[in-house]
Amino acid sequence: MEPEDLDTLYDMENDPQTWDISNFSVPYSRYTLKRYIEDSQCDMFADRQLRLMITLNANNATIGTIDITGFEPMHARGEVGIAIQQKHQRQGYAKEALGLLCDYAFQFLRLKQLTAHIATDNAACLNLFHACGFEQCGLLKEWWHVKDKYKDVALFQQLRPASL
Q1: pLDDT in the model for residue 18
Q2: pLDDT, averaged across the chain
Q3: Of 86, 80, 68, whose CA–CA distance to 124 is shortest?
Q4: 148: number of Cβ within 10 Å
Q5: Is 79 within 8 Å of 114 (Cβ atoms)?
Q6: Which end of the chain is more exposed for a tag (fewer CB within 10 A), N or C?
């Protein structure tokens, strides 16, 4: 993240349509997000997470975020999250970004596995993770509370290929 990413981060974090997948239900102030960017050490081992901005090569516009959170160095694992601005969805950017993140996590960071929690009614996200080599390994019944109802969540996992 760069200081220039503040406006994009502010818009994305404060979009109520993504709160059900982000486990947050309150808006963030610009001040809070500015401090978050400033306080990030950009060190996955110190922060226990890695947040990267997804940008377009053509014009360097930031269109989303992709994260590894819940990083556990002892077990060499983390959980993936991805968000693309609505106007840039369904154009292949998420698949490219997720593929690049997996390559980075497995080849450079040497993680053993990545996981993701995905609402079972989010067909686009389920298809994305399947297409990028993740396999469903569990189902969490009524796991997320969203708009006065509970949603089932599929647990996805990808192990580092043996060839790496």
Answers
A1: 63
A2: 87
A3: 86
A4: 5
A5: yes
A6: C
Domain-wise residue ranges, the chain: 3-159
Please tell me the distance from the alpha carbon of residue 47 to that of residue 39, in angstroms, as a whole number: 9
pTM: 0.82
Closest CA to 98 of 57, 66, 135, 62: 66
Q: Considering just the CA atoms, what is the radius of gyration of the chain in Å?
A: 16
Question: Which positions of the chain have pLDDT values less than 70?
Answer: 1, 14, 16-26, 41-42
3-159 is a CATH 3.40.630.30 domain: yes
